[in-house]
Amino acid sequence: MPTNITLEIFRYRPEAETEPVFQSYEIPFRKDWVILDALNYIKDNLDGSLSYRWSCRMGVCGSCGMMVNGTPVLTCATFLEKYLPGPIRVEPLKNFPVVRDLVIEMSDFMRKLKHVKPWIIREEEKPLSEGEYLQTPVQLADYKQYSMCINCMLCYAACPIYGLESSFTGPAAIALAQRYNFDNRDQGKKERMEALSQDGGIWECTLVGECSVVCPKGVDPAGAIQRYKVASTTEWWKSLLMPWGAKGDGRKAMGER
Amino acid sequence: MGERRWAKGEERGANALLALHPSHFRLNWSKFMTNQNPHYTKHHPRWYRVRMPIFWWVHKWVHLKFILRELTSVAVAFYALVLLFQIRALSQGPEAYENFFAWLKTPLAIILHAIAFLFVIFHSVTWFNLSPRALVVRIGKNRLPDVVIAASNYVAWIIFSAAMAWIILTS
Question: Would an 8 Å CB–CB cutoff place A222 in contact with chain B?
Fold first, then answer.
């Protein structure tokens, strides 16, 4: 078992440098340490100027996502041991602008998330006196997988389409749209379909599939997007074959305006 | 009154102690920075962005596989073109049809067909394996397992291929 391990960390201090540099830190190797522990060790003992985001250190908050040796991971859930003998290269999440060191700018994601309306939409709220909206375990199972998303943005870092085309709504936002589409209490499918069948919506996805591979919560955003495409296509055919029934909603679903 | 004065004194003492706090000895670090970014304005974010390189897909096998899968559509288009030219030759009479078949027997045509065949196989297999991701079929309360959905594609493939082989070989 080695006593030390080296981390090569992406440093970007905008006040000092125009281009980022990699800085090496040698830290004690401990079997029970994750990458985040190593970063905290560096921050506490070696270099207090290192900037990065973290909060819960238990894979729930989704704030410590970084590129480790080129793969997006939650640093709180990735052990140093996996990368023996090192060195380990830690970079900020790909496809996002970097604010400083390992801190990325995420407002693009937040805007997209809001755009897909990830909340329960009711045409009409029923009065409280009528009680709660009931749901069976089978109905819950329809969307539960997609509700596990913690907005860590690893899927955006893994998605080359998002990297090439920043207007793409992206894996997590579409998966979260599906989370509400598949919820039997929701009635906002049509609104979301309109938002997601436009430019930058579901049809940008070419199914690279890496989003689902890197997802720490097993959400399968790639699958969610493909199911959306199937639903959208079905709507389009319906509107083509039964124009009196669908009233052109399906054409909207295929991105026609 | 006395009590109040005492409190004031204490406060002043505390202030004096605070004045010795290391944070008060501020250094203007920018004076010492040799590589200071001349474009940086204090308190204004200056994000670092990178464009994806043109050859982003060569570094990882999964990305290369994805691009290859996309390229298989060229092979599919090639087959379609061959079929169209064959129909055109058929319409132009027996001589043109013979010429077309002569071209099919040239090494170039054979190599192109071999490459296209491999690509089309890759195309079919990758898409069949991905089909369970897009298709969720429910029977009653149970979801049809992914293997069944993928396998049904293969079964259909075999049936169609066998039917085609039967039509071509027996006629």
Answer: yes
